[in-house]
Task: inverse folding
């Protein structure tokens, strides 16, 4: 069942200056694969997200893996073009406390960027990230801070 943690989003928005935040709780999870032993949990947004002239369509998804890997998949557009969507993903526990952030794979940066050069074009945004694998079982929701 998809649900949005609005109280957590409000807290994250208050903590993140000039970066509106939205949250998602787990939509699905899987037991460890027999061949790899890696579990996964997906966090799906059941509504569109906007900031400035930019929009992420309904259905954006972060998938976390128990080995500390993460994958983002979304469709994003801009009404103006020559834009970029900036996103930071924070991992929260069941009390809304920040556990950590997802970092861009191979980097220490927590800022994910999707360029949107043309107005009204729909772009597929797929990004790989990483997080502290020790946090996997504690993650209850993900909050996205964003800017366009």
Result:
């Amino acid at each position: 069942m998809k649900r949005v943690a609005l109280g957590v989003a409000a807290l994250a928005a208050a903590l993140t200056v000039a970066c509106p935040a939205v949250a998602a709780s787990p939509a699905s999870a899987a037991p460890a694969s027999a061949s790899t032993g890696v579990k996964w949990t997906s966090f799906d947004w059941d509504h569109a997200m906007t900031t400035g002239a930019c929009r992420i369509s309904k259905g954006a998804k972060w998938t976390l893996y128990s080995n500390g890997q993460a994958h983002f998949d979304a469709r994003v557009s801009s009404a103006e073009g020559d834009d970029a969507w900036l996103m930071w993903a924070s991992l929260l526990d069941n009390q809304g406390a920040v556990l950590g952030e997802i970092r861009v794979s191979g980097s220490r940066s927590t800022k994910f960027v999707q360029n949107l050069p043309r107005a009204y074009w729909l772009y597929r945004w797929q990004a790989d990230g990483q997080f502290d694998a020790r946090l996997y079982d504690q993650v209850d929701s993900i909050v996205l801070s964003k800017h366009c």
